[in-house]
Amino acid sequence: MKSFSGKALHWEWREGVIELTLDREPANEIGLAMLEELEHFVAAFESLAPETSACILHSERKHGFSAGADLRELYHTAAQLQEKERLAGVRSFLERIHAVFNAIDAAPFTTIAAIHGVCFGGGFELALTCDIIVADKMGRFAFPELRLGLIPGFGGIPRLKRDLGNAFIRDLLLTGRSINATRAQSVGLVAQLAAEGEALRIARATAAQASKFDGATRAVAKKFIKPVPHEEFRREIDLFCGLFARPTVMAALKKFVESTDAMPYLP
What we know:
alpha/beta; 7-stranded mixed sheet; 4-stranded mixed sheet; 49% helix
């Protein structure tokens, strides 16, 4: 299958490049619908990989790449369950998310995230699975999870630790502040900075450049320079579930869901 159109995303293969477009109102929140379609996407890797040189992830939503996990869905689902069932459900969701993100992380072709606007929480973690992040100057990155009494749960911190210095990671995580694309480029998070509205065009040019090289060599190089930290991911899931079991987390989620702010996910 070389194309797919779902409720939360669509993708198309053309001339060796896959373009995955996130397109779920209002801000590409990652819930069950998005997860199921991402699982469908990575299931196609086996057949597409031999003739694929690059993959671009980008967003159709004007607010940005992704506001993160679907916290409203998470709260309403969890509120209907007893504690034991609630934690089992959260763990199952996280394990599925990690399986998908790890598949994107380890894909044998070059993966490029084209970022504009909001790239927060789980959306930021999705971008971090990619080999290269291209962001326009209006892009913003943040991990606001501590406001809810949680840590990022989709593998973001281990991936940042793999790529960047701990001082920047601690600042980002422990303050919850967002940073702009210029700062993100200065610390090595963003590889290429684009003018407003130009991230996708630059990502396509980067994909074309990546397509010039031998696929087998690219796969070996990626495996060597970008190891997937599976043990840290397992520990992260345990820590997240331990935090989620506390009543303060459900109270914080309830407050978020009941917020009348236009974009309560903003730090």
